[in-house]
């Protein structure tokens, strides 16, 4: 150490400025748009390994972005420097409609902390009763499949059926209410609709200032009208929900116990939390559950091992909700889910973060208002962690020598730090229980038309499964 300098001063002297961070070339105004093409996590991983290292920057229009590649960089940014990186990139579609009341999209301020703390506590109170409700929705999913001719060998697409049941689980966990199927589909379409409207939403994401000019302002006004109708419908359901002294344990029950006489603003914020609950939980959990089924159907040897394990664990008349409380009985099933989450994390770039103040990550000083791209995909496919076959589906890599499930800390599908998914426990329960019900009851396969389905998936805001159909092979005893 240089005489007279502290360890902190030595470390500070080694920190590089933001202008020293490597990254692809860019043009004025456009930035790296032409070089980047589409922001795919696999491309970011390749850029990091070939050219720029685990932390690099790029520019899109006028916004600076920093990519964190590999587990160490993601951990450093989201966990060790999490508070500084806990902001969200502005998104006019949400800002125009809800004016900062959607906690999923707002920065880490005192209101966000208050509502996140409430959501965590309320979710913990709701979870003990959820396995039975999830099983109920799983049985209804099977009934829906049978109505489409599944039992007679008809090839069916279950994506919309799965999403509907996951939405009903979300509503039951939040307000202990099921909606009519046509109504729940309408709510889902309104909540997700603005994010499917390309190219307008894409341009707004890149250039938020476009929100003030046609046709973008008219597009946003139309969205606001539709969203307001959905929000009012959910506010009405919340007000009808319950009296504060009943024995219910859903999220709304916890809210009313804290706020026996809520004002309209508090009801509105709770409705916005419910919209986030559905937005962040339905498509993500549904698609992750479908990825599990798809990988097992593509690897029939692994599926047979899982099915035998599930049947053995349930042979004494146990229900799947009981099995969920005794998950150690099915280590191979758990390992298969874990491996699918490694290979196809539903949010491979963890939903973009933003610095709310200056931070030092990986030896670089990152200023305020920089968008952070945590490349979870790169950690999940890192050859240093998963050699010799990081791209292979091999659940046994998560099984210990004595046959127990051995989860890896390097598998982070629900992210890390302050923005880690609040609904992780519910999502894991959904994926476990729904798949356990299906796999223990039926031996099914990909329909012939889907045998060569592209396993890369379709990357939008989440990593979606490709379109595929399944067919019953046999009903298991």
Structural notes for this entry:
- The longest helix is centred in the middle third of the chain and has 35 residues.
- The chain is built from 19 helices and eleven strands.
- Helices cover 51% and strands 9% of the residues.
- Strand 1 and strand 2 form a beta hairpin.
- It has 477 residues and is of the alpha+beta class.
- It folds into two domains: 112 residues, no CATH class; 362 residues, Cytochrome p450 (Orthogonal Bundle).
- A five-stranded mixed beta sheet has the order 1-2-7-4-3.
Give a quick rundown of the structure.
This protein has 477 residues and is α+β, with helices and mostly antiparallel strands. It has 19 helices and eleven strands.
The share of residues in helices is 40-55%
Give the distance, in angstroms, between the N- and C-terminal Cα atoms.
71 Å
CATH architecture group name of the largest domain: Orthogonal Bundle
Number of domains: 2
Order of helices and strands: HHHEEHEHHHHHHHHHHHHEEEEHHHEEEE
Shape: globular
| CATH class bucket of the largest domain | Mainly Alpha
The fourth-level CATH homologous superfamily of the largest domain is Cytochrome P450
Strand coverage percent: 5-15%
């Amino acid at each position: 150490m240089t005489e007279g300098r502290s360890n902190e001063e030595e470390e500070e002297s080694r920190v590089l400025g933001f202008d020293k961070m490597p990254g692809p070339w860019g043009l004025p105004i456009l930035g790296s748009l032409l070089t980047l093409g589409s922001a795919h996590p696999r491309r970011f991983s390749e850029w990091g390994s070939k050219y720029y290292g685990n932390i690099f920057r790029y520019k899109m229009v006028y916004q600076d972005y920093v990519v964190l590649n590999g587990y160490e960089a993601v951990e450093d940014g989201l966990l060790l420097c999490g508070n500084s990186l806990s902001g969200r990139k502005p998104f006019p579609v949400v800002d125009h409609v809800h004016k900062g009341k959607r906690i999923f999209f707002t920065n880490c301020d005192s209101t966000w902390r208050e509502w996140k703390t409430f959501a965590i506590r309320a979710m913990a109170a709701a979870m003990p009763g959820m396995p039975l409700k999830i099983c109920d929705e799983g049985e209804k999913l099977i009934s829906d499949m049978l109505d489409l001719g599944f039992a007679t060998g008809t090839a069916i697409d279950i994506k919309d059926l799965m999403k509907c049941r996951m939405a009903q689980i979300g509503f039951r966990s939040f307000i202990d209410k099921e909606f009519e199927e046509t109504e729940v589909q309408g709510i889902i379409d309104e909540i997700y609709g603005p994010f499917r409207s390309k190219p307008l939403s894409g341009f707004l994401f890149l250039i938020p200032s476009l929100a003030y000019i046609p046709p973008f302002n008219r597009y946003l006004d139309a969205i606001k009208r539709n969203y307001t109708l959905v929000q009012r419908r959910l506010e009405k359901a919340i007000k009808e929900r319950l009296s504060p002294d009943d024995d219910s344990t859903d999220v709304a029950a916890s809210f009313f116990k804290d706020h026996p006489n809520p004002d309209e603003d508090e009801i509105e914020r709770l409705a916005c939390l419910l919209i986030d609950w559905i937005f962040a939980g339905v498509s993500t959990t549904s698609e992750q559950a479908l990825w599990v089924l798809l990988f097992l159907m593509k690897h029939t040897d692994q599926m047979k091992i899982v099915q035998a394990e599930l049947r053995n664990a349930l042979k004494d008349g146990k229900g799947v909700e009981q099995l969920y409380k005794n998950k150690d009985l099915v280590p191979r099933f758990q390992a298969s889910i874990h491996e699918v989450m490694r290979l196809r994390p539903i949010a491979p770039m963890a939903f973009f973060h933003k610095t709310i103040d200056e931070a030092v990550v990986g030896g670089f000083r990152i200023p305020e208002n920089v968008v952070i791209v945590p490349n979870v995909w790169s950690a999940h496919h890192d050859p240093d962690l998963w050699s010799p076959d990081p791209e292979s589906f091999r659940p046994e890599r998560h099984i210990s020598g004595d046959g127990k499930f051995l989860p890896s800390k390097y598998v982070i599908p629900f992210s890390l730090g302050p923005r880690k998914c609040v609904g992780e426990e519910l999502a894991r329960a959904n994926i476990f229980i729904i798949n356990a019900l299906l796999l223990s009851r039926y031996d099914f396969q990909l329909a012939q038309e889907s045998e060569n389905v592209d396993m890369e998936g379709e990357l939008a805001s989440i990593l979606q499964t490709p379109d595929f159909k399944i067919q019953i092979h046999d009903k298991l005893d």
